[in-house]
Design goal:
Helix content: 25-40%
Number of helices: 14
Structural class: alpha+beta
Distance between the termini: 51 Å
Length: 486
């Protein structure tokens, strides 16, 4: 195999690993982090020549304080983490110093399993070291891109050795920097798995502008919810503006161009302060800007879905399917999987004794979180249910009990079908929005493909799924018998 082919395979596999780890962390599944310690050990042993590098959590004690890997001869210590923030780096340095590990090792490296920040405050890190260790952020905070850069300068034999470490990890072996012949053949087979992640796309440019200081509702005041104040001002001025914007530190942030003097936000901002930024440039500044950007994405999603009869329920953290017309008893959506199917997403049950009165409504719903992995953004979809009553669809007092009963009736295939429906339906919205002739601002968000991996260890469902408890079939629920299970 040519040297360039080896390098491309190494870089691609490393980037895929970072996505897997960030996805697992977002789902609060952290086992992969511990397994990855040995992978990092093998990669650094081969790339940096630290032949005595070992895992302290295995060799000395579980959860060794401050560091995970070390080479006593090279006097190098490594902390492996999936957290990239400045506070984590400072905490690693302070722990390293408090246990006087600087007397044992000359260099501390913090390796970020996902993606490190674009920059770190060197002054803050210097205060954390208190002169006990020479720690330089650009040199000593690493992620997979630093390993890829190191591999680009490796000789062919060294590159092949480090690639074998990565291949062994993908095959299920223990990555310790050994050659392929040192590993037993994998005993498990692999299967393709779909994650609950969907690619999401947005404009490459974001606009930031200062809010005007001469508005009566804001002048001389600090507000806990600045966005709410802006919304009230828009209402008082009888201005219709898109809802996909965020407000932070007296700045309005949106994907919509703010340099239009006739735009809906023109009366609220200082036009001379409008600054277009690359979206990546904005969210890459620090964790706070990434948090603001995620909030903007959620507002963009809210606006897109609201036009299609899916409303955001803030207290429940759910997007909920609503009837398309006020008096509709049912709402069904057509979607395409292996074949064209129909999904019931809303159903209204009336009082048996008085058909003019509502008893309860059942809504299909889902949670949505935004995840950044490598150079891409994804939306994590969690199918759910919502039960309501009243004309304004307030949460039903029986919601928790009803949802618990309903979910016990669902199996893996049911949940998978929920997700497949959502991916198909959301994808179809892009085409609807493209050809829509209805009034309103264009959507700033579109969707791509679901994320899947082909190298996941195969699981025998019959062996690991719990047996069904027949007692559950005797459960009572306020909705039992009212709605068919999906």
């Amino acid at each position: 195999m040519k040297h360039l082919d080896l390098l491309n395979e190494f870089n691609t596999s490393l980037a895929q690993l970072a996505v897997e780890i960030e996805t697992s962390s977002a789902m609060q599944l952290y086992d992969i982090n511990k397994v990855s310690e040995n992978l990092v050990l093998g990669l650094m042993r081969e790339l940096f020549g630290w032949n005595q590098l070992r895992n302290l959590n295995m060799d000395e004690k579980t959860n060794f304080p401050g560091i995970d890997l070390a080479d006593d001869n090279a006097r190098v210590a490594i902390q492996v983490t999936s957290t990239s923030g400045l506070d984590k780096i400072k905490n690693s340095i302070e722990t390293f110093r408090s246990y006087r590990l600087n007397e044992r090792y000359d260099r501390l490296i913090v390796y970020v399993l996902t993606r490190k920040q674009g920059s770190y405050s060197q002054a803050a890190l210097n205060r954390a070291t208190e002169g006990a260790i020479d720690f330089i952020a650009d040199r000593d905070v690493m992620d997979y891109r630093d390993l890829a850069s190191r591999a680009a300068n490796a000789n062919p034999r060294q590159l092949l050795a480090v690639l074998e470490v990565l291949r062994s990890y993908q095959r299920g072996g223990v990555s310790s920097g050994l050659a392929e012949a040192d590993f037993d053949p994998p005993t498990s087979v692999f299967e393709k798995v779909n994650l609950n992640l969907l690619e999401v796309y947005f404009p490459s440019t974001i606009y930031v502008a200062d809010l005007r200081a001469d508005d009566g509702k804001r002048q001389g005041k600090r507000h806990r919810n600045e966005r709410k104040v802006v919304r009230e001002i828009l209402t008082s001025l009888n201005l219709r503006a898109p809802s996909d914007y965020e407000v932070n530190a007296n700045r309005l942030i949106t994907f919509h161009a703010l340099d239009d003097e006739h735009g809906p936000f023109a009366k609220l901002i200082e036009c001379g302060t409008v600054t277009p930024l690359g979206s990546r440039e904005f969210y890459g500044i620090d964790d706070d800007h990434e948090r603001i950007f995620k909030s903007l994405l959620r507002f963009s999603l809210q606006q897109k879905l609201f036009k299609h009869g899916v409303h955001w329920k803030h207290e429940d953290g759910l997007f909920v399917f609503m009837p398309l017309k006020d008096n509709d008893l049912l709402r069904e959506e057509t979607w395409v999987g292996q074949k064209t199917s129909t999904r019931r997403v809303f159903e209204r049950k009336l009082n048996k004794n008085d058909p003019n009165k509502l008893f309860v409504c059942k809504h299909f719903a889902f949670g949505a979180d935004f995840v950044r992995a490598d150079d891409g953004w994804y939306i994590a979809l969690t199918p759910d249910w919502f039960f309501s009553y009243g004309d304004d669809f307030r949460r039903s007092a029986y919601a928790d009990e009803s949802i618990s009963w309903l979910k016990r009736k669902e199996v893996n295939r049911t949940v998978s079908d929920h997700f497949r429906f959502l991916t198909s339906w959301l994808g179809a919205l892009d085409q609807d929005d493209l050809f829509s002739v209805t009034a309103g601002p264009a959507s700033t968000m579109t969707f791509g493909n679901a994320v899947s991996f082909a190298n996941h260890p195969a699981l025998d469902d019959d062996a690991w799924l719990p047996l069904r408890d027949l007692v559950e079939d005797e459960d009572t629920s306020p909705i039992k018998g009212l709605f068919d299970t999906p």
